[in-house]
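Need tokens for this chain, all 231 residues.
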Amino acid sequence: MSSEGQKSVQSRAIQQPIIPEQTEYYSQSRLEMLGFLPPNPERLIDIGCGEGLFGAAVKARFPTCETWGVELVAEAAEKAATRNDRIIRAAVDGPAELPSSYFDVVTMNDVLEHITWPEPVLATVKRILRPGGTLVLSLPNVRYFLNVRDLVFKNDWEYRDFGVLDRTHFRFYTTKSAVRLLQENGFRVEEVVGINPARLKLHYRTLFSVAPRFFHWMRFPQFAIVAHSID
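Here are the structure tokens for all 231 residues:
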């Protein structure tokens, strides 16, 4: 790693959360989230950025965009620093050195579910966003049909290494509860979209076609939200 990259990684005293050990957590580019960004972002920070691949993808699409990231894991933060303008090594609960009213976009790709109390993080997001700035995030969908099937018909709630019931998740969200959380913390939700839909077997497709409005969100293991800060 270059000395320039090392200088861009800032450390601070942090309280240790449960940190996923799988390297796949930190090396996902999440290209599907690019489509939810506003046109021509100027300053974007990716909270929980992992190895910084999403920020690199943002730079590839918007070359003039200044990209920052926040990442707790040292090895991932060092890699992210080689791909972005600045990386803060810290927990996602809001490092104090982040400048206020600086960013026009904050992204959090599957981050809030790993946090015991999301409200302080959302307060930090509001602080660092410019007035009317955009928050783009994704979350696992606890109403995903495989999860509902196991709960209702198998009386089971088995934690796993990946997915909706990842063993490092503290919180579980539906689209409705996620929207309520954002609204209660000073954001206006503009868009909620299911992402990465499952490939359904015939019997599930038949069942879901009976009441498509009821079953709509059950097809998606994740959903994306676009919201704006309310001053």
